[in-house]
């Protein structure tokens, strides 16, 4: 059995070079750039009006003759003389001869003449050429996540295709004779299966599209065959259940017989002690505990950082911060613990119902409080490491 920090260290040291592909920008949400993007244009490509108002060729007075109107999208460039101006709208090209733009609320207009009601200065309300970026400059660097804002920025440069790291192909294998699909009739001795559904949701939140689901009964040969099939066709295999030491837990034996290299097995933590991480040829395998809360905790703490690595992300996983505790908690034993909690402003409250089989507490939680091995009691007002859930 290894510590939480040792397990995270093993995962962080794995070398993984993601594949790359060029895709349409509209399909790139939440993916990671695999190469730098250089701006093909100046942005803005011309002097641009920041407001609705009047573009003026300044003189010493406060009265101007308006000789033209310029809408956004037109290429008008009237030759203004001192004391002349043009009606102009936000986003429109500013005439070369214009020194400034005065907003429409600061003038009075009678027919084609305006009077300025406030002081004006050169270049006000004008966005200069290349104010945002110059042609040839790096717009976004390799490793940048393509958020809606990043996609909008790239689109504004006229780019419609980007090079991204290819998300991994992931298999989710569910074990357990007792499991039924939601929506079917519940019979004696059975429970509804939730692990594969919550794992699927967590992976889709990362924009993982290629997810294959397998269901296997608690029987050795079928367990081995399904795991082998998943290994042959996927980059990452997630196995739910069957990794403990019960008479009908066949996952570890199957992985061993298939030649899987064990990188670690069992972590000194609660929940999620029986977590397996290994490698078979080019495929990485996480065998997660069968209890739903244990499975989800192991996903967030260990699987998520690894999946992000395979996607080319710079992130090490969920954001960690320090919060002031509002409750008292005393743990039993010497294992580290991850406790479902709620964060509000600078405080965090540990929730009732920490059993590894209970998902209700997870459903209303927005954070996990980490209690290290060497800490037994945490008290109100104490600062605790807090992991913010997606």
From TrEMBL:
Recite the UniProt keywords alphabetically. Answer: Magnesium, Metal-binding, Molybdenum, Molybdenum cofactor biosynthesis, Transferase
Tell me the function of this protein: Catalyzes the insertion of molybdate into adenylated molybdopterin with the concomitant release of AMP.
The UniProt family comment states: Belongs to the MoeA family.
Q: What EC numbers are recorded for this enzyme?
A: 2.10.1.1
Cofactor dependency = Mg(2+)
Pathway annotation: Cofactor biosynthesis; molybdopterin biosynthesis
Enzyme class name:
transferase
* Protein's name according to its UniProt entry: Molybdopterin molybdenumtransferase
Q: What PROSITE patterns has UniProt attached to this entry?
A: MOCF_BIOSYNTHESIS_2 (PS01079)
The answer to keyword Transferase applying to this record is yes
């Amino acid at each position: 059995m290894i510590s939480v920090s040792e397990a995270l260290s093993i995962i962080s040291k794995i070398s993984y070079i993601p594949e790359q592909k060029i895709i349409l920008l509209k399909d790139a949400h939440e993916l990671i750039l695999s190469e730098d993007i250089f701006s093909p244009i100046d942005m803005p490509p011309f002097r641009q009006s920041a407001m609705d108002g009047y573009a003026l060729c300044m003189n010493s007075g406060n009265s101007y003759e308006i000789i033209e109107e310029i809408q956004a999208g037109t290429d008008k460039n009237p030759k203004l003389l001192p004391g002349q101006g043009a009606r102009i709208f936000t986003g429109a090209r500013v005439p070369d001869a214009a020194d400034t733009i005065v907003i429409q609320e600061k003038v009075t207009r009678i027919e084609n003449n305006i009077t300025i009601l406030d002081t004006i200065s050169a270049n006000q309300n004008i966005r200069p050429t290349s104010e945002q970026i110059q042609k040839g400059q790096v717009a976004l660097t390799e490793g940048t996540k393509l958020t809606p804002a990043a996609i909008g920025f790239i689109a504004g440069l006229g780019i419609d295709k980007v090079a991204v790291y290819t998300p991994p192909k992931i298999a989710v294998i569910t074990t357990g004779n007792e499991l039924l699909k939601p929506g079917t009739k519940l019979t004696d001795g059975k429970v509804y299966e939730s692990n594969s559904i919550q794992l699927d949701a967590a992976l889709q939140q990362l924009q993982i599209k290629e997810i294959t689901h397998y269901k296997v009964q608690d029987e050795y040969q079928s367990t081995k065959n399904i795991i082998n099939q998943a290994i042959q066709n996927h980059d990452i295999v997630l196995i739910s259940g069957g990794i403990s030491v019960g008479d009908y837990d066949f996952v570890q034996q199957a992985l061993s017989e298939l030649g899987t290299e064990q990188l670690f097995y069992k972590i000194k933590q609660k929940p999620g002690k029986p977590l397996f991480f290994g490698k078979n040829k080019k495929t990485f395998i996480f065998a997660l505990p069968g209890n739903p809360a244990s499975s989800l905790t192991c996903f967030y703490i260990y699987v998520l950082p690894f999946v992000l690595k395979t996607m080319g992300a710079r992130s090490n996983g969920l954001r960690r911060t320090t919060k002031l505790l509002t409750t008292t908690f005393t743990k039993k034993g010497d294992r580290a613990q991850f406790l479902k909690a709620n964060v509000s402003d600078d405080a965090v409250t540990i929730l009732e119902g920490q059993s590894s089989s209970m998902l209700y507490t997870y459903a209303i939680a927005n954070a996990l409080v980490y209690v290290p091995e060497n800490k037994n009691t945490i008290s109100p007002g104490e600062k605790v490491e807090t992991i913010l859930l997606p």
